[in-house]
Amino acid sequence: MDEFCLKLRSGDAKKKLDLGSDIINYLEDPENSIECEDIGGFIDSVTSWMTSSNFKVSQNGLDIITHLVERLGQGFRLYINTLIGPATDRLGDSRESVREKSALLFVKLMEETVEPQILLEKLTGAYTHKNGKVREEILNLLISTLNSHSSQSLKISHFLPSIISLLGDPTATVRDAAVATLVEIYRHIGERVRVDLERKHNIAPAKMAILTSKFDAVRASGEMMPTAVFTLGTTADGKIIIA
Description:
GO terms for molecular function: microtubule binding. The chain is mainly α and 243 residues long. It is 63% helix and 2% strand. It folds into 2 domains: 1-114, Leucine-rich Repeat Variant, CATH 1.25.10.10; 116-232, Leucine-rich Repeat Variant.
């Protein structure tokens, strides 16, 4: 890996593309060592590629870091904060292939390196990102995390305010994604979500009516998850209990 480090300093896009392909091919072979005198410096340099105006360089940067996550596993925890900003920005890239590779990097981090809750909390800035596509993609990432890791691996209440705020987003696709995310959360958790939204969050009646209709539809469809609670009761002092 050290021989690659010396070449990472080049600012020429063509050289970066060639070098990126060489590094990816090297990392794809599990027999090749990833020992490096300055692995932190290597990761910093490759992470900077994500911000390149050349989408192929950006893709290579995402691919290389994803391979390193797979190879280093828990050992990559030290470097997560370095890539959060650049990788989040790439969720809003104009090219779908770049957005997909950025999302895959976050998925791999949750699989190999860090608990989903911890990573998603580091990504909360994405909900207010200036790029609407980033706001949309963070919601899609939350949905995929729910389905791959289950609601029991997440403290959903931590994310509800951010999701609810996007119900009023100026971009239609973001608003739709926010609704879809709340419906998916309901599918996993059940009636407690409906009650929390009605009692604890100031959602406009028209939007709450849309959510209620969609909650009822998914419940009637028989597609609720085994983790979902269907019946809630109320104590004399108004507290919600599971029946």
